[in-house]
């Protein structure tokens, strides 16, 4: 395992630990959001994520994780919140990497507003 991958896994795990402590007070979506979702202004990423949640544009990550725990069981090793285009519409999406019990990595894309799974890929 290369140093970069270990770093990404460590950052993902630390983010999850932070999420679990923030779930109770509604700050779960203050998680790291990818740099591609940053605006030109120098507003911190977590402020964009929190504002989107308060506007009703995204569900808290805790709700998304609860849904995925049933549909795609395994260990979540990375979460990103990004703004992307699907079917001609700009959407907030959660991109998750999940390590399954048999050692496969699943890349999951979820509509952050509806919770609908948009894409699921095996990343062998």
From TrEMBL:
<dbReference type="InterPro" id="IPR025711">
    <property type="entry name" value="PepSY"/>
</dbReference>
<feature type="domain" description="PepSY">
    <location>
        <begin position="65"/>
        <end position="116"/>
    </location>
</feature>
<protein>
    <recommendedName>
        <fullName>PepSY domain-containing protein</fullName>
    </recommendedName>
</protein>
<dbReference type="Pfam" id="PF03413">
    <property type="entry name" value="PepSY"/>
</dbReference>
């Amino acid at each position: 395992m290369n140093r970069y991958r270990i770093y990404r896994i460590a950052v993902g795990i630390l983010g999850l630990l932070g999420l679990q402590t923030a779930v109770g007070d509604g700050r779960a979506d203050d998680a790291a959001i990818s740099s591609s979702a940053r605006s030109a202004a120098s507003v911190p990423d977590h402020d964009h994520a929190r504002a989107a949640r308060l506007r009703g544009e995204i569900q808290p990550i805790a709700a998304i994780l609860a849904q995925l725990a049933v549909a795609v069981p395994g260990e979540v090793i990375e979460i990103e919140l990004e703004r992307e285009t699907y079917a001609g519409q700009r959407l907030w999406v959660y991109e998750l990497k999940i390590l399954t019990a048999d050692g496969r990595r699943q890349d999951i894309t979820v509509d952050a507003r509806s919770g609908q799974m948009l894409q699921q890929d095996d990343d062998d």
